Amino acid sequence: MKLKSKHIAPMVLAFFIIGIAGTMLLNLWSTELGKVPAQYQSGEFEGEYDPSDIRGSYTFEDISKAFEIPVEDLAKAFGFTDTPDPNIIKAKDLEETYGSLEQGELGTDSIRLFVAFYKGLPFMAEEKTLIPRLAVSILKEKANLTEEQKTILKERTISLSELRPSETEGEAQVATEHETTEEFVIKGNTTFQELLDFGITQEEIEKIFGMPMGKPGEALRDYATNNGVEFSEFKAALEALVASKKQ
Amino acid sequence: MGKKKSDYTRLYVQIFFFALIAVISINHTLAEQGKSTIPFLSSASLHALCPFGGVVTIYEYFVSGRFIKKIHESSWILMWITFALTLVFGPVFCGWVCPFGAFQEWFGKIGKKIFRKRYNHFIPYGLDRWLRYLRYIVLVWIVYVTAITGKIVFADYDPYFVLFNFWTGEVALIGVILLLVIISMSLFVERAFCKYGCPLGAVLGIFNFFRIFSIKRNTTTCIDCGACTRNCPMNIHVDTGGTVRNHQCITCMQCTSEHACPVDDTVELMTGRMEVAK
Ligand code: SF4
Hints:
The structure holds two protein chains of two kinds. By secondary structure, chain A is mainly alpha-helical. Chain A folds into two domains: 51-162, no CATH class; 183-246. Chain A contains twelve helices and five strands. Chain A has helices at 5-25, 60-67, 71-77, 93-98, 108-119, 133-142, 147-156, 177-183, 192-198, 202-209, 220-226, 231-246, and strands at residues 2-3, 100-101, 104-105, 131-132, 157-158. In chain A, the strands form two sheets. Chain A has a two-stranded antiparallel sheet with strand order 2-3. In chain A, strands 4-5 form a two-stranded parallel ribbon. Chain A starts with a strand and ends with a helix. By secondary structure, chain B is mainly alpha-helical. Chain B has 13 helices and two strands. Chain B has helices at residues 9-32, 52-56, 58-64, 73-89, 92-97, 99-115, 125-131, 134-149, 159-163, 173-186, 192-196, 199-206, 227-231, and strands at 214-217, 267-270. Chain B has a two-stranded antiparallel ribbon with strand order 1-2. Chain B starts with 8 loop residues before the first helix and ends in an 8-residue tail after the last strand. The chains are: A mainly alpha, B mainly alpha. Chains A and B meet through strand 1 and helix 1 of A and helix 1, helix 4, helix 5 and strand 2 of B. Iron/sulfur cluster (SF4) binds next to loops of chain B.
């Protein structure tokens, strides 16, 4: 069988078109980068993925796959629990959502810090990197934090509830745990987790509301509305409790 | 036998792929700069569209099941498409598709005009024969260093990347220098990079030893005019054997009876046995 140029041309095109279209149909074709971070090249953690290589384009799913951290933890830590599909949230979305703050930055480096501490991997966060209080709570619960790491987190904690655009009437507040105690204010979107983080016990919360506490990530106002009560009825009692803890 | 009509099929295919890659690269730059892109056209990076990316990650993929950094799934798929194409027709990717090969070929036309018959014959055959294996050293070096570092180490040296990204300001000086060297060499040697430096060409060249469709010469009808050999851009001695089994053939078909060979049905791209005239 002999072939001429007029045969080769369509065959070349056909191979590429069929190959690309076929893999597109099978969902295998992607011209986006495989989101795989670099590995540590030496030392104790050699061969493990290096959180400092997480890029802004990495989705929560990419990070979850590489570091084996549940997407739910990432979504909760960075305040994306209301998002229909947190898998597709990109690290750089943090910057777009919270922006650069006067007190520092909540962005890709915050995720790097969270991932590194979650997995017990070495990492030096940038000077201005902040981390949400909910992320710190998750780390306290799931990671074996050293005293040094706890101190680092303390200095960089920020409350997401202070940053949500709808609530950002004043300045965003960065709070170290010490400052938190001084400045913690009860708002409609304060979550149960934040109350717990502040040092209020579940018993105390349930005593005020007179019913079982909601999910940790649930906002107080939503919880009240869902249970047919007015948030404002309980706000004063919660504030009094907070004030008593501040002393 | 008779005067051949000019056939521009391969040139059109080369122009198509060159233009496609050039426009996609421009689109990629526009996307990177946050500007509006050309509609209905990919804005993929050049790395995503080069089958060689797949080759350098083979080791990593089979060892860890992952691609190395900066390698796209599309590269991996393009590599397999290219391998399939090469298994059937030989390195048509080099001769028909590769925009960098086409670019060198077009630039070489200037050298051909200047040096005429001396063009593409400056390097003595004895030396040139050995220099052709340089691209295997390049290939082994790249695959080895990529495997141990897990990064695309050759990115900075890649003249192909420079050609389609020189306007971005993201190209390394060493890459620019290499591109200029290759352009200059193309004035003397046809497809200099393909012959001596291209690691993808090195891989695809191996398929020449077992490809399904090969370049075959009918030794009984051949008049030994040497036109096939003279017209081969890769300086292959087509006129000395029956089937071309040279690792440098790029299936450009310049040697065939469709182009250089003046005798019909004498040098063909074919499979099976060449019918010998009784
Ligand atoms: S001229 Fe013939 S032998 Fe030479 S590269 Fe082209 S197809 Fe191969």
